[in-house]
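Fold Annotation — chain and its backbone
Next Lines — sequence and tokenised fold

***
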Amino acid sequence: MSNKLQAIRGMNDLLPDQSPAWQYLERQLRSLVDRYDYREIRTPIVEPTVLFARSIGEATDVVEKEMYTFDDRNGESLTLRPENTAAVVRAAMEHGLLHNQTQRLWYMGPMFRYERPQKGRYRQFHQIGIEAYGMTGPDIDAEIILLSARLWRQLGMADHVTLELNSLGSPEARAAYRESLVAYFESHREVLDEDSQRRLITNPLRILDSKNPAMGEMLAGAPQLLDHLDDESREHFERLKSTLDAAGIEYRINPRLVRGLDYYSRTVFEWTTTALGSQGTVCGGGRYDGLVEQLGGKPTPGVGFAIGLERLMLLLETLELVPEEAKGGADAYLLAMGESAEREALLLGERLRDALPELRLQVHCGGGSFKSQIRRADRSGARFALILGEDEIANARLTLKPLRDDSEQQTLAQDEAIAWLGRQFA
């Protein structure tokens, strides 16, 4: 073949030396949601395009520019999911999970957006998300924020993230605010960049989220949504802040925080960090009380968040918070010296795995000299080489050679060797 086959730009392979750190992170995430009794839901990665157009908003960047959309053989327009909240709502409605019920759900998997790839942000990326339905009060908002705060403590990065809060109020209050915001931006049209001028017609709240430094002073003087909140939304926000205060969760009110998707209302929040060079979002979420009705269901309150795993992994690595034991590698490497030892090594390996379920054991296959096998054992990262030769087989013994320190090797009866290894890896 003349053309070298490569992965699609922005869609990356996860190689064997990278996967142990990902498995560590996924275990941390799974154990956390289990402790809060959130239940996993898995949805297809392909959905009808109309699902995202109706939920995210046809005037958003995601729908206008970033979705992977195609027609199938029946002419139906399908889209690789760019986010998963809409898909979770679709599944919950389809299978009757929302009527007169409360649900605490979570998901984890790949999403797809066509945007310029950069470190920590790719065209195929992975998210974990939390979704809670059927609860109207700020207590569930507080719970999911407390859950995310516990994650940062669990991963050892609590000092490197900051919680930002805002309230978008009710749709009616936001519509009134939109009018005053548009009037303000119209009076400063000469400052607006091309993207913001387009958004002035389609989605003016998104202008507040602009990162264009030339617009910074103008944006700082824009009307604030918090000054236009309806009474019910204001009370909701105050109760949320009171709960976070009582729990000792520090936060910063960010009146320009609007999130990028149309379905948010009332509480919105982000956890941000400056540890990656420039301030970046590692977790974002909020309320979407109108989304179920927007997609054809009965009015059902909802709240949740999503975390991009690539960026979270990048943060873990930057802060050097991936523990050594999560970097992979064998605990022990079993050498088979001679043809007669090859079968016996495989059988002994199974015996070791039966006796020591937590032991990560690699049994040498493929023959080779003692020197070459020791090299393979060292490259595996194992702490011990277990040597099985003709003498060991004849006497039912096993030689244990340390690979990471200068302690002496020893030869023990196989039962004693298994017990000794059990103590090392207890």
Residues 29 and 317 are 16 Å apart (CA to CA). DSSP finds 15 helices and 16 strands in the chain. The mean pLDDT is 91.
